[in-house]
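Please check the following for our workbook:

***
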Amino acid sequence: MATAKAITMDDLLAEESVKHLTQGEVVDGTVMSVRKHEVLIDLGPLGVGFVPRREIGFGQKLEEGSSVTASVVDTELDNGYSLLSLRKAAKDRGWDEVQRMVDDGETIEVTAYDANRGGLLIELEGVRGFLPVSQLSAEHYPRVGSSDKDEILQRLNALVGKSIKVRILDADRKANKLIFSEKEAIKDGLADRFEKLKVGDTVTGVVTGVVDFGAFVNVEGIEGLIHISEISWERVNNPGDYVKVGDSVQAKIIAIDKDRLSLSLKQLQEDPWMKEVDEFKKGSAVEGTVTRITPFGAFVQISPAVEALVHVSELGEGEGADPEKVFKLNERKTFKVLEVDKENRKISLSLKK
């Protein structure tokens, strides 16, 4: 009969040491209970772990009985529990996965959990990162006036919770820096689409922003700009009177830049100026309404689409004539047609008798 091995003091100490946690180590456990502000983890012979809400990773769903991996923050609290962090454990493992995605040049789908005026806050594999506004695609970029910061934030908040395809632009584990780019994720597809487009094509897009100088349009992921001068044959003072965010528009490509299309709405319409200008002949008398007064003369509306210029030298009051004293806004006067220049879309008038 075998003799039982005597248990030494060293054996007891070794066994006891196994049951002690050390700060920073990673342990496995089972969820005991999930409460509003905390989660309790059964660590077996190592006791019970306490996880405060802030130490649970974004989007991590916990249920009683589910297995978890946690990092030890403090080995013993006043209540006898150990303070654990699921977020830190996930983050440590997550950086390895993030680096693999960077090495593979992988395109991934992420979901923002919050936003600020600079961009979207995103958590990937337990690692928190950032998607700057400048790295958003044409579809999602908040094209608003630079002074309207509240609307920028409102547009970004609308993207929170939505799935976005991105690539990792910068990953620095030591600096805890993780930057995403939606532009990079769609770059290859955009290059193919650009090759198929040419000046003169008619394209359909959705208005993504209306600003003082025109309107931005998303054309299948490619950004286009309709300059204020290309919105209408009429004089446009406010682009918002003609297009609104969300409008679907047809436009003509008038130039293709490196990563943007220059578009025109008016060039898909007949130029009413060319039709109406035939009514006016050199030397004839016309009646018109003064629309603008400048130091060098005045602009006069002589038909719905045709505006003409009366130069200061044609006021009949000598070289020192003051248009401000000769004209009043919105008054009607009779003028003589001096020149009709169809090529440059210009008509010159004279007030001289």
About this structure: The CA atoms of residues 274 and 344 lie 11 Å apart.
